Amino acid sequence: MDLEALKKALASRLHGVRPESVVLVGVGNRLRGDDAIGPAIIDMLKGHVPHALDVGEAPENYTSMIKRLKPSVIIFLDALDFGGMPGSVTLVESEEIQRYGASTHGLSLEVAMDYLRLETGAVVFLIGVQPERVGEGEGLSPSLVKPINDLARALIEAIQN
């Protein structure tokens, strides 16, 4: 999915939604290369959107906090190997996550997303970003800096409009 298609999908899903009812959830390990995509995007969003949470590798540990925010939309952000070019994005429903199987947080992410959808009635989905490398070592691949900056800007625009 290219950035323009993602912007359209976000505009459609966020139409008429108050910014304070959108919760962005970054999933990932900052010590495993591009697995840090989710937390890196959250860093860019802080101060621009009401609710941007870095949940590390354990989204299930933050479900109570997320529920207290009374969200109508919950957007998870994570590295996801879907066979695209590094930095490309895809929008994934919770029931589709296991099909990809390459997220290091696959099962806990699917469970957390399903649980939050049932408990809050919110629209819940994942924006997966294709990593270049996942493994030991801090810092994102240089090729991902522009794509995740573009994604962060697209999210801010979609939430604020």
Structure description:
The protein is an alpha/beta fold and 161 residues long. The chain has six helices and five strands; from the N terminus they run αβαβαββααβα. Strands 2-1-3-5-4 form a five-stranded mixed β-sheet, sandwiched between helices. The longest helix is centred in the last third of the chain and has 16 residues, at 145-160.
Question: Any idea of the CATH class?
Answer: Alpha Beta
CATH architecture: 3-Layer(aba) Sandwich
The strand order across the widest sheet is: 2-1-3-5-4
What's the CATH superfamily, by name?
HybD-like
Largest sheet: 5 strands, mixed
Q: What distance lies between the first and last C-alpha atoms, to the nearest angstrom?
A: 21 Å
Shape type: globular
- The secondary-structure element order is HEHEHEEHHEH
Total number of strands: 5
Radius of gyration: 14 Å
Number of helices: 6
* Poorly predicted parts: none
- Strand percentage lies at 15-25%
Helix content: 25-40%
Q: Overall pLDDT, averaged?
A: 90
Number of domains: 1
The structure class reads: alpha/beta
Look up the CATH topology. Answer: Rossmann fold
State the main characteristics.
161 residues; alpha/beta; Rossmann fold; 5-stranded mixed sheet; 6 helices
